[in-house]
Amino acid sequence: RGMRLPAGVRERVAAVHGGAELPERLRLYDGWAARYEQDVAALEYRAPQLAAASLAFAFPAPPAGARLLDVACGTGLVARELHRRGFRCLDGVDGSAGMLERARSTGLYRQLRPCVLGREPLPAPAEHYDAVTVVGALGEGQVPSAAVPELLRVTKPGGFLCLTTRSNPSNLRYKAELEAALEGLERQGAWQKVLAQEVERWERATSEEESTQGTGYISGVVYVYRKCPVPPLEEG
């Protein structure tokens, strides 16, 4: 029950979530790119679907013309889900060349660029995107919570940001830090919270210690925020 994941999957997940320094971690992602989608399928990883559904739910306008930036886009799992929900103008960035190559082969992105968020700014002008997603990369040793204002910079006023993080034991310190950053930006009036949804079966746990109450799964959260000032509704 739950713990019967193939050993290789457990090892690869443990490696990228382990304590490696960034260059080494990016090499691990490069090496993982070819097997990544099989592995996350084995993990029953639901974040891409959950995030895309939450963003589509919050999004007031027809999504086809909306410009969206998929940060830490990986192989394009989030793009696939967004595309299914009508988003067509997708750009992506990722720190791993191997992942970007896979994302390119999907044909779902207009533009893909290398960027290690937290180390460098996003390759986009201010107030450029109607929506920005960061699915799966906000975690211990990955994108620092201090990088959140950079996501806001490239979002248009009234635009949406969809972020996810995990609630498993080894990510709880990071999650608390992230939520403090999210709440701080809300107090400053930088954005408004649209939703924060805790999801129990986020993905399968790779160890008994990480599993929520012995279920064999870990939980996670989807957050959707709207950048202020939110434009007034047009009269008429």
From TrEMBL:
Pfam families (alphabetical): Methyltransf_11 (PF08241)
Keyword Methyltransferase in annotation: yes
GO molecular function ontology, one term from the record: methyltransferase activity
Annotated GO biological process: methylation
Residues annotated as domain Methyltransferase type: 69-162
InterPro entries: Methyltransf_11 (IPR013216), SAM-dependent_MTases_sf (IPR029063)
PANTHER family on file: METHYLTRANSFERASE (PTHR43591), METHYLTRANSFERASE-LIKE PROTEIN 27 (PTHR43591:SF101)
Protein name: Methyltransferase-like protein 27
Source organism of the structure: Eudyptes sclateri
